[in-house]
Structures are given as structure tokens and as C-alpha cells.
Design brief:
The complex is a heterodimer of chains A (about 325) and B (about 325). With about 325 residues, chain A is an alpha/beta fold. Helices cover about 30% and strands about 25% of the residues of chain A. The mean pLDDT of chain A is about 85. The chains are: A alpha/beta (about 325), B mainly alpha (about 325). Chain B: Its main location: membrane.
């Protein structure tokens, strides 16, 4: 954490959606983390672990009828949970901006890229059309879009995936937001473009002072990009801490298993890459104890009673009973990715 | 551009030829359709029959008859009816066309405006009683047969309540040309417009609502909301604008179909001498020249409407624009 006061601090955030007439299905349970000024925080987890929903909850964009959000999301000291949509609107796009996974579908197909960026600028500040367009063109240029003037006049389908994602980032940055939420910004792109986009995200901190919440399922992306990392499993926090510490010495068996499933760059290649057996539980069938217990190699009776408490382990916070029992995971001998 | 227009013209010609050959062929293949007997009249002598046959050219080979008919229809425009001797069919169609065009255009304006309003409102207030009420209304509109609605409208406005303040202004059934009196034209048609529009309002508002709701799950709608735009702007500028593409294609087909004679029932109920009614007359009398003329007219409209829809498409959807270039 680089800043003194975190930009975003999430405490005990829970999201439940109605199931049937009376029951509520927990999707996110008691997730806590904070993002400091200029920090890049990575949220990792499998599909369905609640990464994207965490982002949407912070943005107040959950539109499932009857969904209930509890806990606290403080953005620059302001509570966002329970904020009315009307009060939320000036924040969205201006203070907190979001980048989506698939830049192909995230732009409205019938308007030009420039029109859509202008629209966001003009939604938040009183500027003329020409001024907005000038800013759009400058932003596109800053994001490394060649010939930004022409690109602004093009429709989303006329640009390549990489350019579209750059345009998306330009749009997100158009109002100088203090927090940028990037929901799998590179998943839909090929590897070279992915590296360029990640480099761009890293440079934002330098050039714009933005904090970034980077959501991904790719541990490699996290290792390259993020200052700290939050591992989510089945809507629960598994582990959070500084990235290098977490990679060097994972405190949660799930983190360790995730890291083990990355092929090593050096040394002997395993004939068979370790994988985590089974699949994450659906929200309806989460066990009462540790949600990871059914797939965990360290599973024992203590795991089954209640959600494990979050404890301090080294430089990380870990939701696991092992450290409490004095049975911490060993230091990983392999180099961090 | 020129190439596109030429290609379109070629297609039109091809479609018209195909349809006319088909109509012609079907007519002569229909048993009991022999026009000679009709023209010669009941119990005509064989001599008269032969004379008529020769006079009308029915004794010549079919391709020649076809060519002659096309020449008379499109070039000399003096094709005459088999039923009313000496009545030229082309002017008939041109007399009926403005009536139908007035009827359908007015109705179309009403149904487009009302259904967009209803569909958008219902989608915006999805799940509320407003939504349910509007969609129920739409369903009722779809379920009511147009001739019944027309009859009820007439019953109320022409006889039952004609003397009340509400319907005193309603003129007698029939058509008043716009050039003669715009206000009279409006008064004569407004009930017919509404009657014809009801079905389409129901249909279009339901389709639009479903489309808007489907679109609201799209990524770009989430992006628009994440940009901090107002819900109205998200719904109209992003949702509705995208849904209009479907709406337009639906509209083009229905509009062409109606202008081409599909508004028959409304025309009959409101005493309007339109193309639908003319086609109906031609078919009941098995009057080939008139059938040919009305079918050709309607085909031309369908083709024109399709071309127009394609053009609007190009304006509405940039992806189509590029597909063509």
C-alpha cells in the first residue's frame, strides 16, 4: 500500500440474490480488501468465484431484482453501499471507471468510438462537442492508438481487438477517474496485445496516478502487473497480500495449488502438470465450513464447522485454519513466476 | 452506387417477370377460368364464341398472349377488363392507389409512434403494473380482428353515438382526396387509421419490448451504465437505437404488404375504394387484366419497400454499411 488513506476500502462485502420465494442465495460472503492511491490490486479466482460481481457491486451495477448487498464499500471516505442510483451516477465514469472483458461487445455497435468517448466526457463535464472530441483524440493518442483522429471516427467493428481495448481504456480514463476497475481486460486478446495492454495499465499509475483493480483468472497477469493480490474462492476471500509475498509463500492451500498449476519456466518440466481436482461449489451447494475443503489436500475435521477466520500469516491475510494450528504451508521452492 | 441501383433494377425486373408469368400461368391453368365464355355471355352461340376468342386473341399461343398483355399493361397502358367491357385497368389502379397509400401511411405513422412509446415504456418499467397493463393492451389489440374493430368503430361513430359531441365530426363512409380538402381527408380516414394500426401497435410494442429487454443484457448496455449515463439515455440512445434495426425490417415488410393490397378488410369496412378492394373484385370476377395490374402494382411496392428498408438499414447499422462496401 503506497498511499496513507486507501482510495477504496471494502469491508465485509456480501451479496445475496433471491432464490425461490424466500431463500437468499449468498454469492459473495464477507469480502474485505482495500486499494491504496496508485496501487494495482489483482483479484484472482476461477470462473464463478465472484470476481466480476465484486466489481459490479462496487460500481452499484448489480441489477438482479431483489439482490441484497451488505457490508461497506468506502470510496475516498464515502460509503457506496446503499447509495441511490441517482447519487451513484456522477461517480460512475468520473470517479470510478470500468473496463470490460470483451471490447467487441462492450461498445455500442451503432456509434463511432469517438462518439462514445465524447458521450462520457460530456456526461460529466460541461464542454462543447469540439472540446470533447479534442480530448478524445488526445486520449486515444495517449493510449497508443495510431492516427487517433481517424480512429475516433470509426465504428467498433472496424477496429482490431487490441485497438478496441485501447479505446475502451481511453474512454474509462476520459474523466480522470481515481479508480479504474478492469474486468479481465486482456482475456479476449491475443498474447502480444495482452502484454501491450498490461504495460499500458501499468503506465497509467505513472501518468495518471490511477489506482487499478485488475480482475483476472490468470496468475501470470497478476505476477506481472499487480502490487497486491486478492484470491477469491467461491465468493469468499481465500488470501490477500502483497503479490511477491503471496507468490513466494502462499498461505492458503488454494493459492498454493493455483501456483502449482502454472508450468515452471526453468528446471525440470513435470510430466503432468498438477491440477486441482473437482470443481468449485455452486453458490447453492457451498459447504458450511471452508468452501475449499472438499478439494483441499489438507482437509481435516476442523475445516468443516464454520468459515475459517481470516488470520495474519507472514505478510498476507489468509482464510484458513492451518496457520492457527501451527501448520503453515511450506515456502515454495520454485521461483515466483 | 450506380452499380447498386442497376443491380436493384435488374432484380426488380426479374421479380416482376416471375410474378407476372406465374399469375398468367395460374390463371390459364385454373379450370372454368376461360374468359371467352364470360365475355361472350351466357348461352352464346359458337360463332360468337369464336369471334370473341379471335377478337381477344385467345386463339393465339400463350406466350404471344402473355407478351401482348404485358405490352398493353406497361407500354400502351390500354389493357381492358374482361368483365366490364372497355374499362381500362391501369387508370383503375392509379385511382385506387392514393386511397390505399393514404390509409396505410396514416396508420403506419400512428402505429410506429404508439408502439415505440408503449414498447419502450414497458421495457423501462419492466415487471411493473404499467408494463403488464401495456402488454395486456397489446395482446388485446392483436386478438381483435380488424374487420370487427372497424365495424364497431362505424357502429359507434356512424349510427349509435353519431349525434353526440364525441362523434359528430365523423363524415359518412368514403374517401375524400387530400387535394380536395386536407381536413376532410383527415376526418374521413382517422378512424380507419386507428383501426388498421391497432393490430400492429400490439405486435410491434411487444416485439420492441422483448428486443429492448434482450438488448439490456448486452455488454454495451452495462458499459453505458458504467459511464454514468442517465437510465433514460442508456435506454433510448443505446438500447432503443440498437433495437430499431429489427423494428425497421419488420416495418418495411408490413408496410409494403399493406400498400400492396393487404389492407383489404379495413378498406371494405370503411368504404374506401383502395387497391385491396380492387384486387378482391378482380379475384371474385376472375378478371385477369385487373388481377395482373393489381398484382404487378403490389409487387412493385414490395420491391420498392425492400429497397428502402435496405437503405435505412445502411443508415442505421454501420456494420451493414461495411458489408456492402
Amino acid at each position: 500500500m503506497t498511499g496513507v488513506e486507501p482510495i477504496l476500502s471494502v469491508e465485509g462485502l456480501s451479496l445475496a440474490v433471491p432464490r425461490g420465494r424466500t431463500a437468499m442465495l449468498p454469492i459473495l460472503e464477507n469480502v474485505s480488501f482495500s486499494v491504496g492511491q496508485g496501487e494495482i490490486l489483482g483479484i484472482v479466482g476461477e470462473s464463478g468465484s465472484g470476481k466480476s460481481l465484486t466489481a459490479l457491486t462496487i460500481m452499484g451495477l448489480i441489477d438482479i431484482p431483489g439482490a441484497r448487498v451488505t457490508g461497506s464499500v468506502r470510496f475516498r471516505g464515502r460509503e457506496l453501499v446503499g447509495l441511490s442510483q441517482r447519487a451513484f451516477r456522477p461517480l460512475r465514469g468520473r470517479e470510478i471507471a470500468m473496463i470490460f472483458q470483451d471490447p467487441m461487445t462492450a461498445f455500442t455497435p451503432v456509434y463511432t468510438i469517438g462518439w462514445q468517448i465524447d458521450e462520457q466526457i460530456r456526461a460529466h463535464s460541461r464542454v462543447s462537442r469540439a472540446e470533447a472530441r479534442a480530448r478524445t483524440v488526445r486520449l486515444l493518442g495517449d493510449m497508443g492508438v495510431p492516427d487517433p483522429e481517424r480512429a475516433a471516427g470509426r465504428y467498433p467493428h472496424q477496429l482490431s481487438g487490441g485497438l478496441r481495448q485501447r479505446a475502451m481504456i481511453a474512454m474509462a480514463l476520459s474523466c480522470n477517474p481515481s479508480l479504474l476497475i478492469a474486468d479481465e481486460p486482456t482475456t479476449a486478446l491475443d498474447v502480444t496485445v495482452q502484454a501491450q495492454i498490461l504495460e499500458l495499465l501499468r503506465s497509467l499509475r505513472r501518468d495518471y496516478g490511477s489506482s487499478v483493480l485488475l480482475i483476472t483468472h490468470d496468475m501470470g497477469v497478476v505476477a506481472q502487473t499487480c502490487d497486491s493480490t486478492l484470491v477469491l474462492y467461491a465468493g469468499n476471500l481465500a488470501e490477500r497480500g502483497p503479490t511477491e509475498a503471496l507468490f513466494a509463500r502462499p498461505g492458503h492451500p488454494y493459492t498454493a495449488a493455483l501456483l502449482d498449476s502454472i508450468p515452471p519456466l526453468h528446471g525440470v518440466r513435470p510430466s503432468r502438470l498438477p491440477s486441482i481436482g473437482g470443481a468449485p461449489p455452486s453458490p447453492a451447494s457451498r459447504p458450511p465450513g471452508c468452501p475449499f475443503a472438499p478439494r483441499c489436500v489438507h482437509d481435516h475435521p476442523a475445516c468443516h464447522d464454520s468459515r475459517p477466520p481470516v488470520v495474519r500469516e507472514g505478510r498476507q491475510d489468509v482464510a484458513c485454519v492451518l496457520p492457527g494450528e501451527g501448520r503453515s504451508l511450506p515456502l515454495r521452492l520454485r521461483e515466483a513466476v | 452506387m450506380l452499380m447498386t441501383i442497376l443491380r436493384r433494377l435488374g432484380q426488380t425486373l426479374f421479380v416482376l417477370t416471375g410474378i407476372s408469368v406465374l399469375v398468367f400461368g395460374v390463371f390459364f391453368a385454373t379450370p372454368g377460368a376461360d374468359p371467352t365464355a364470360r365475355i361472350a355471355g351466357r348461352n352464346a352461340s359458337p360463332q360468337t364464341m369464336a369471334q370473341v376468342r379471335h377478337e381477344y386473341g385467345f386463339d393465339r399461343p400463350l406466350p404471344v398472349q402473355y407478351a401482348t398483355m404485358m405490352k398493353k399493361l406497361f407500354v400502351t397502358r390500354d389493357l381492358t377488363s374482361y368483365v366490364d367491357r372497355g374499362e381500362k385497368v391501369v387508370p383503375e389502379v392509379f385511382k385506387a392507389a392514393p386511397v390505399t397509400l393514404s390509409l396505410v401511411t396514416g396508420a403506419a405513422i400512428i402505429w410506429v409512434v404508439v408502439s415505440i412509446t408503449m414498447g419502450t415504456l414497458a421495457a423501462a418499467l419492466r415487471g411493473s403494473w404499467v408494463d403488464r397493463g401495456l402488454m395486456m393492451l397489446g395482446l388485446i389489440g392483436i386478438s381483435m380482428p380488424v374487420f370487427w374493430v372497424g365495424q364497431v368503430a362505424n357502429l359507434l361513430s356512424q349510427s349509435r353515438y353519431h349525434d353526440t359531441i364525441v362523434f359528430r365530426w365523423v363524415p359518412a363512409l368514403g374517401y375524400v382526396p387530400f387535394t380536395e380538402s386536407p381536413w376532410g381527408w383527415f376526418k374521413a380516414l382517422v378512424l380507419a387509421w386507428i383501426t388498421l394500426a391497432i393490430l400492429f401497435i400490439g405486435l410491434y410494442s411487444r416485439v420492441l419490448r422483448a428486443d429492448l429487454i434482450a438488448v439490456s443484457g448486452e455488454d454495451f448496455m452495462r458499459t453505458a451504465r458504467a459511464k454514468g449515463l442517465s437510465p433514460t439515455r442508456v435506454l433510448l440512445r443505446h438500447g432503443l437505437r440498437t433495437s430499431l434495426v429489427t423494428f425497421v425490417s419488420l416495418f418495411g415488410m408490413d408496410f409494403a404488404q399493406l400498400v400492396g393490397g393487404g389492407a383489404l378488410l379495413t378498406e371494405v369496412v370503411f368504404g374506401l375504394q383502395g387497391v385491396g378492394r380492387l384486387t378482391y373484385q378482380a379475384l371474385t370476377n376472375l378478371d385477369l387484366p385487373l388481377i395482373m395490374a393489381t398484382v404487378m402494382y403490389s409487387a412493385v411496392f414490395v420491391v420498392i419497400a425492400n429497397a428502402l428498408v435496405d437503405m435505412v438499414y445502411i443508415v442505421l447499422d454501420p456494420r451493414v454499411r461495411d458489408g456492402r462496401a
